[in-house]
Write a structure and sequence with these properties.
Elements lengths: L12 H6 L14 H5 L2 E6 L6 E7 L19 E3 L19 E3 L18 E3 L19 E3 L18 E3 L18 E3 L19 E3 L18 E3 L22 E3 L11 H8 L11 H6 L3 E3 L14 E4 L6 E4 L2 H6 L1
Parallel strand pairs: 2-3, 3-4, 4-5, 5-6, 6-7, 7-8, 8-9, 9-10, 10-11
Antiparallel strand pairs: 1-2, 12-14, 13-14
Length: about 325
């Protein structure tokens, strides 16, 4: 081969580094009836009340690859199969009284789970789940942890009772189509979001964490019950974006540090003006707050304004007392 000819089998060093070898296939380790027997606890009456049975199985950290035998233990209600080598959870659907399931740290690449009549808590964090197409309607599910997986889109089924959803550390780029009528707490930290469009569909939401994304706008933030908002380390830049906080009239705590807008000299004042309902920001310099003319120490509450009429509480970084933020009209009257 001449010096000018290229070896077709040769590649650049960078290309070779991008090729990730597939994870090793674990040795088969099938759960047996005897193995389940050593993990049982919590003796309770069965659903019919006619007999007693063990309802808890702790099968964590056993390097299991197959737990099909669990279908023979129909009275199980609390199952922990975390820290194993499982690649499927369908077998859990055969447990008619299942209430809580923990399958963290396995090898799941999808969440294939049929409807479970009594399932209330499900945790499958630290797996490889890429899609939820096979995740079925769960009528009583209240808490779902899908953090640290590989989800790019949200294809959740109907979950009418879901109150807490953890989606940290995925690859989610959009919230469109997310409809969960009872959701109270949502964690979207460390994803790939650029906006909050679609979040307004979560009418019951009170806690939203979305730090560590690429969110550049607060447009679409219309949540009547939102009380806590964490948007640290995003890309919110324009001071005018803070006006969108008025779409959350019950907001009590806002965390926006790590955004370009937080470097603006008017950041804290503009935030409090936009969200004047009991808003608490991160610790700040008391002198700056007082100089802004918007705060009064509790020790010097203007006459005629009772504690119940204060609109917000802001804790100073160098002071142990509380600073009260009043509606502009009452403040001027004082």
């Amino acid at each position: 081969m001449s010096d000018t000819e290229e070896d077709p089998t040769a590649g650049s060093g960078d290309e070779e580094e991008e090729i990730n070898p597939p994870p090793p296939v674990p040795e088969p380790n099938v759960l047996t009836v005897e193995g389940v027997a050593t993990a049982l606890s919590l003796l309770c009456k069965s659903g019919t009340g006619l007999q007693h049975a063990y309802t808890r199985a702790d099968l964590s950290s056993r390097k299991l690859t197959d737990v099909s035998v669990l279908k023979e233990f129909v009275f199980l209600r609390y199952v922990d199969v975390s820290d194993n080598e499982l690649d499927a959870l369908e077998i859990l659907s055969s447990l008619p009284e299942l209430i809580t399931a923990n399958a963290d740290n396995n090898r799941l690449d999808s969440l294939a789970l049929a409807s479970c009549a009594f399932l209330q808590v499900l945790s499958v964090q630290h797996n490889r789940i890429e899609q939820l197409a096979e995740f079925s309607f769960q009528p009583r599910l209240e808490k779902l942890n899908l953090s640290h997986n590989m989800l790019g889109a949200l294809q959740l089924p109907q979950l009418p009772c879901l109150r807490s959803l953890d989606l940290r550390g995925n690859k989610i780029t959009s919230l469109e189509g997310l409809s969960l009528p009872c959701l109270v707490s949502l964690d979207l930290s460390d994803n790939q979001l650029t906006s909050l469009n679609g979040i307004a569909q979560l009418a019951a939401l009170t806690q939203l964490r979305a730090q560590g994304n690429q969110i550049a706008t607060l447009e679409g933030l219309r949540l009547a019950r939102l009380e806590t908002l964490n948007l640290r380390d995003n890309a919110i830049e324009g001071i005018d974006q803070l006006q969108n906080l008025s779409g959350a009239p019950q907001l009590k705590t806002a965390e926006l540090e790590g955004n370009p807008v937080a470097e603006d000299a008017d950041y804290r004042v503009e935030t409090l003006v936009a969200a004047r309902w009991a808003l608490r920001l991160e610790p700040f310099d008391v002198d700056v707050a007082c100089a802004a003319g918007l705060y009064r120490c509790r020790r010097a509450v203007p006459s005629g304004i009772g504690q119940e009429e204060r609109v917000g509480v802001v804790h100073g970084g160098n002071c142990t007392c509380e600073y009260l933020f009043y509606p502009p009209t009452r403040f001027q009257d004082a």
